[in-house]
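Try it yourself: sequence plus zinc ion, in.
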Amino acid sequence: MAEALVQVAPQVYLYPADDTPDRVQPNVGVLVAGGKTVLIDAGNSPRHARRVALALDAIQANPPTYVIYTHSHWDHVFGGQAYGAPAIAHEQCRRTLMEMASRPWSNLYIQEEIQRNPARETTLRAMQKAVEEWRHFRILVPEITLSKRMHVFLDGLTLDIEHVGGAHAADSVVVRVPEARVIFVSDCYYPPPMHLRKPEDGLDKAMIDSLLDDAYDVYIDGHGKPRTRDEFAALAENERMQMNGSR
Ligand SMILES: [Zn+2]
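Structure, out:
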């Protein structure tokens, strides 16, 4: 299990995802500048968030001032309540989470949801495993939203948040940190979530191409290891080769 922050650039860290498949943990990005801390994604549960908070303590970073949600999928937002900080996200992410927050989260509710929607069983079981205890669970709905783009200025770091949407989640944003030459792309180029995925759905090559930019050296996605720009570009190339090979 990952316990420590990994530094990916000056002032930029990652609490890396545990890649055990049924854990469905996302990467949590950590930006530390001028005594402030901003997180990119919240983790998949209050328990995950508490581990992130311990890792912040270990580098003497302050508790977060903001948490940026890259999109509304549960594994990126269910830890949000644990930090005591407001969340920033796309306006559609807020609408989705308002709706999700109104549901009666409990083990019983999860069981009923599985009955209503068997295609979501894997996801719902993963939620149940991640959260464990629903009694004090609540979804932290974003207090601050953007429609297309916004900037957050820390001492010496700019966070350039842009809505990119895409097939994986219509409310996806990417976060560029130009001074650190790092871009957080999260899941925006992934295929649609499992229960909505068709056999022909692959990585979003046009999205990958649109995010390639000489100004960024480190590409951090929602669940994998950080990549160089060339490695990120290669994802689209491999996808194109696979598609040609399968015809
Ligand atoms: Zn996602």
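One thing you can check immediately is this: Residues 6-101+136-245 form a domain with the Metallo-beta-lactamase; Chain A fold (CATH 3.60.15.10).
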